Amino acid sequence: MSIIVMIIIGLIAGAIARLLVPGKDDMGWIATIVLGIVGGYVGGTLGSLVFAPHKFDFRPPVEHTFIGAIIGAIIVLLIYRFVRTKV
């Protein structure tokens, strides 16, 4: 997956995650991209553990990339909010 595609999917997945989770986040578009990219890795790892043969790879499976990125971004956003409120 090229870096441009990863950035675009990260931006879209991060933006959708921020829209789906209620509340206000003081994030710019770069933080939204990072949220989506990290969410893609989290969602891809969880997807490969649940649905695919259990192999660990640094790349998420292609068929789980977008939905996994959204689900992973939601998880990362909730963890970010929890940690931010505790500090």
Automatic annotation (TrEMBL):
The chain crosses the membrane at residues 27-52, 64-83. The keyword Transit peptide does not apply. Keywords: Cell membrane, Membrane, Transmembrane, Transmembrane helix. It comes from Nocardia acididurans. This is GlsB/YeaQ/YmgE family stress response membrane protein. It holds the Pfam family Transgly_assoc. Coiled coil: none annotated. It is found in: Cell membrane. Belongs to the UPF0410 family. It is a multi-pass membrane protein.
